[in-house]
Amino acid sequence: MVRDEASFQTQPAARMAALDVWTNKDMGRQMTSSNRIRGGALLARALRDKGVERVFTLSGGFCNPALEGFMECQMPVINCPHEQVAGHLADGHTRITRRPSVCLVGPEGFANAVPAMLEAAGERCPVIFITGSSTLKRKGAGGFKEIDDVAIAAPLVKYSVEVVDGGRIGEFVERAWQAATTGYPGPVHISLPVDIMFSSFDEDVGQTERPWNRSARPVPRPWPEPAALDRILRIIERSERPVVIGGHGVWWSHSESKLEAMGRTLRIPVFNVPYHTKLLGEECEAYMGLADFHQYHPSKQAIQNADAVVLVGGRLDNQMNFGNPPFFPEDTTLICVNGSSEELEYNHAADEILLSDPGAFLDALAGIDRNWPEWFDLQKSRRDAWVRGWEDHVASETARDMAEDRPMHPLQLGLDVQAEMGCEDWLVFDGGNTHFWNEIAVNMAGWRGQKLGGILHPGNYSLLGVGVSFGIAAKATHPDRQVVVISGDGAFLSGGLSVEAAFQEGLPITVVIDNNGGLDCISQQQERLFESGRHFATDFRDIPFHSMFEGLGGHGELVERRSELGPALRRAMASGTTACVNVKCRGVISPIVAATSDKRDKASIE
């Protein structure tokens, strides 16, 4: 019999429970239990055994047995004002901790949680979505709140299943957990019919079957085939201008420190896949910026001048132009390294592919006998020139803002907010142009030595409204840190209701509204695309966001000039409550939106 001794050493309760099972089996006794519990409690216990730290929900009648189970298990449950908010909070918590958390909703709330599934899927985030659903007994007969939640979720998650037997609840949790955490991670969905949720079962049901150890086990990681690894390393070693682009797989395999060490030791410039959690601090010497030609222009020079590009833990999707020119020149050797065969399927266009845990590959790469100091220093000088160019530009714009008494530039807002933050504080940004300007701002500030505890933002699908939820998740996991959310006004209107959870749970965050009076990212595209040169259906009225926070019991201030911003931010962060600094900014088109507008204007879509 094979046992996971390492896991058992850290899970004494699981060890003793499993040893009891083995003892009873060896003695030939049938395990019986006089205690019966509801299906919802079985669900809660199965998730507790996996080590789930938090559950996010909008409490509903279909889910009450599960909530009772979580209460008995003493698992923290965060009650949210909306199911989408619950999903985003679970997503944010999982991104930060890199351990699955749970979003629990009722059948009608499932529809509200769908956008959160989409956002989590784009980030490969292993959130466990659980639906209390209509009765299994009368399935297909028009039961109360009956929807086909399994089919709806299936395209958005890695695994979507309906529990068909209460005795198998633990088994389905096991299957969902494995799907969420192994291979390329991602969200999963379990539908638990209300009749199973409320029915009673022996509390040890299903425990006479393997696996005996129901705790979270170490995630299997593929080690590279030696000959294939050696071939890849020799290609890189012979190159003159290598570049590494880090993606999702590096983060979820906990390999970002190895990425940083490799880049620093070998003097290979490292870039980050856009719309993904930052793998390295912006101040890190090896980190250059996003692999995005518009948000960080020097990446174009580096990638298109490189003779070998190594994409580690990422996909050749639309952000990477599917591996094609002109993003990757035809004569560049394109290498993709992924920790799952599923992700390699997306990278069939690469010249070389390698199935390997990102950490194992980065360790091997760091051991080659070569470095590239001149190529590395060239990228540093390009980053310095890029930062200086933006600094000159924003200084000129700010001088004009002050002279003409007009609202401040959104890039200046991003830089000024960071200037008030400490090296362990968390920054979240959310919106269209607000997101893009802050990507530029964090690169600039990082080059000047600004350190932050962490950065969160929307993922691959650019879903508006996640910022406040992510800010609350950051505060919940780091209660002793300041958390600042910079949100566009449109993004806040999409998901700002989540701020109630900050008040309810006593998790004070500071929300800075980049208030330009509308969906600026869209209106600017319209002005370049529409024949009239005007925008349409994108304006908001002058909304007093700061007063909304005051009405909820928080702190609020309106800022109309740059000179007011620093003091207002300091007061907000010192207030001890959830606060809003409502900043009137100019609508300024970001480089990526300008490029997107130009591309769409020229494209023929027929």
Structure commentary:
- By secondary structure, the chain is of the alpha/beta class.
- The protein folds into three domains: 5-202, 3-Layer(aba) Sandwich (Rossmann fold), CATH 3.40.50.970; 226-378, Rossmann fold (3-Layer(aba) Sandwich); 407-602, Thiamin diphosphate (ThDP)-binding fold, Pyr/PP domains (Rossmann fold).
- The protein is 45% helix and 15% strand.
- The strands form four sheets. The chain has a six-stranded parallel beta sheet. A six-stranded parallel beta sheet has the order 11-10-9-12-13-14, with helices on both faces.
- α18 (433-447) links the parallel β15 and β16 (454-456).
- α3 packs across α4, α5 packs across α19 (467-477) and α17 (410-419) crosses α18.
- The longest helix has 32 residues, at 373-404.
- It is globular.
- Mean pLDDT is 90; it is low at 1-33 and 600-606.
